[in-house]
Amino acid sequence: MDLRTLLGTRRAGGMVNRIIQKATSAGIVVIEKRGVGKDGEIYAYKRS
Fold first, then answer.
1. Cα Rg for the chain, rounded, in angstroms?
2. 14 vs 12: CA distance, rounded Å
3. Contacts of 44 (CB under 8 A, 6+ apart)
4. What pLDDT sits at residue 25?
5. What is the pLDDT of residues 5-46, one digit of tens each?
6. Three-state secondary structure of the chain
7. Disulfide-capable partner of 3 in 12, 15, 16, 45 (CB 3.0 to 4.6 Å)?
8. Model confidence, pTM
9. CA distances, 36 to each of 2, 4, 15, 33, 41 (Å)
10. How far, in Å, CA of 20 to CA of 37, rounded?
């Protein structure tokens, strides 16, 4: 799924990074960064 298309903005990476930071400060991991591809950063949902 391309978050940029879904959210209607090219700034999806910043939003995802904020979610990661807030979740980490609460002691949980819901999304992990997998790297950077040709179209931007690659994220994956962390399954428990």
1. 11
2. 5
3. 31, 32, 34
4. 94
5. 777 887 877 888 888 899 989 999 888 888 888 877 888 888
6. CCHHHHHCCCCHHHHHHHHHHHHHHCCCCCEEEEEEECCEEEEEECCC
7. 12
8. 0.61
9. 13, 14, 16, 8, 4
10. 19
Nearest to 16 by CA among 38, 46, 27: 46
d(CA 1, CA 43): 10
pLDDT (0 to 100) of residue 22: 93
The length of the chain, given as a count of residues: 48
Number of Cβ within 10 Å of residue 17's Cβ equals: 14
- Residues 30 and 20: their CA atoms lie apart, in Å, by 7
Confidence of residue 48 (pLDDT cuts 50, 70, 90): low
